[in-house]
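Everyone, carefully examine this protein record:
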Amino acid sequence: MTVEPLSSVDVAPRRRAELGEFLKARRARLRPQDVGLPPGGRRRTAGLRREEVAMLAGVGVTWYTWLEQGRSINASSQVLDAVARTLGMDNAEREHLYRLAEATPIRMDTTTTDVPATIQDAVRALDPLPAAVLNSRHDILFSNDAHHDLFADWHTLPCVHKNKLWCCVTEPLARERLLDYDKEVAYLVARLRAEYGRHVGDPAWEEDIRRLTELSDEFAALWSRHEVAPASVRTLRFWHPEAGELTFESTPFTAAAESDLQIQVYTPADDGTAKRLSRTRIQAPA
């Protein structure tokens, strides 16, 4: 007997129903006093009421009710993050929530470009300067330990996309960590648009853009402008929880033998950043 695979149309209602049941189960395990509410009188069912979750998460009661009922509604990562915090979800539960709501930035695994060993060695040798190898879609293909440490606390969830642009527009913490957020995200989208001209019709590119447009109204608005930009040296300001404000000159270097690869190096732009850079390290560089 041959079992036909479910189409995306068939799967969507089942995913939404699973999402509703998951939220109900997480809501049922909490008591009002767990979230700072008075115990109140007798309750017909265990756990928090929908209205209480909505109030604590800062979302509409009707919207949250529809989410639990499995209705087809848009749920941004920022709003889902508020619901996850209210329900006390751990990282695994939050990632499960995002996946069921189709708000996790799942990307096609089509990045096949290998980073030559010589380039990897060069990037490692740049430590303690943070450095990474990216392609024209902003995928982070390789990075040294200094780069990893600098951005280790960027995410509220484990990074599942390994892409500079996705890390900005889908991560709630990005606005407080990237201090010139609006300007830099607009630049990243303009760079993507410029490179897209060479990849129109490429399934990986088209799927990336479709998913980003669905997940982020911000990206959709920027993409619709059709603005393009050349690669350039950028002054980037970050807020790091241990080192405070850091300012870098971000310099792109094209790998001559690999036209789609770019080495990006972060050089301290002032003495304060140079002195505090060591505070970003999770462990001392080898």
Remarks:
- Residues 8-28 form the longest helix (21 residues).
- Confidence is low (pLDDT under 50) at residues 1-9, 108-112.
